[in-house]
Amino acid sequence: MPPVTSCPAPDTLEQFALGQLPESASATLHDHLAGCTTCSDTVQGLRHSTMGRSSHHGPQPTQIFSAPFPFLTPGRQANELGRLGHYRILKVLGEGGMGVVFQAQDSTLERLVALKVMKPEASSSAVARKRFNQEARAAASIQHDHIVTIYHVGEDNGIPYLAMPFLAGESLEMIPCRRRRRSLRGKERKSTPSSQRRSKAT
User: Fold this and answer.
1) In what order do the strands lie in the sheet with 99-106?
2) Of 72, 80, 122, 172, which cross-links 67 as Cys (Cβ 3.0–4.6 Å)?
């Protein structure tokens, strides 16, 4: 099948999402999806609608999902955004000007990690790549409770990445909200007469 130079028809995208395209056609369409966010988003939407129908119509064929980030290899499971190296990318934890941090699973060791990945526009800079590697080496050379451990440094599809422990907890965005709730509860308690608080306690 010749390379896809224009966006394929909607029924072709649906067949791809359902895993019904021939292998050669799917491989060609993978390349198109890696550079076309419109078709990639369409396939993602078809994937979600297919998952909703699967509970009523039985199991669906094995699917290959296009990645919302062009530098990721398309994932093969419903809960994946894509793959990078031997890591299954599960969701975005944070994003900055130079990189993205994903929650990912190490498919070799089967453990969750935080995967820091350089964006393509940043990785094209030799200075930025050097700084990224220096950061990884500096963190890896120090053993301290307050310094993150570096599990692995690698590169895939021309994109540098480093794997760190995934620490469960709340995001920094939630801290102000929690403090505001605590402050409101404190003000409410102060405004309630002590006799009323005692009656509630009994």
Assistant:
1) 82-84, 87-95, 99-106, 111-118, 159-165, 152-156
2) 72
> Looking at residue 21, what is its pLDDT?
66
What count of other Cβ atoms lies within 10 Å of the Cβ of residue 60?
Answer: 16
CA atoms of 172 and 153, how far apart (whole Å)? 26
Cα–Cα distance measured from residue 162 to residue 44, given in angstroms and rounded to the nearest whole number? 27
pLDDT digits 0-9 by tens, 149-201: 999 999 998 999 999 999 876 665 566 766 777 777 766 666 666 656 555 55
Q: Which two tokens stand for residue 155?
A: 């590169």
The domain defined by 80-169 folds into Phosphorylase Kinase; domain 1 (3.30.200)
Question: What is the phi/psi pair of residue 84, to 5°?
Answer: -140, 115
d(CA 82, CA 44): 11
CA gap 110, 51 in Å, rounded: 25
Q: In the structure encoding, which two tokens stand for residue 149, read together?
A: 């451990």
Q: Tokens 């605590």 appear where?
A: 182
Count of beta carbons in the 10 Å neighbourhood of residue 20 = 14
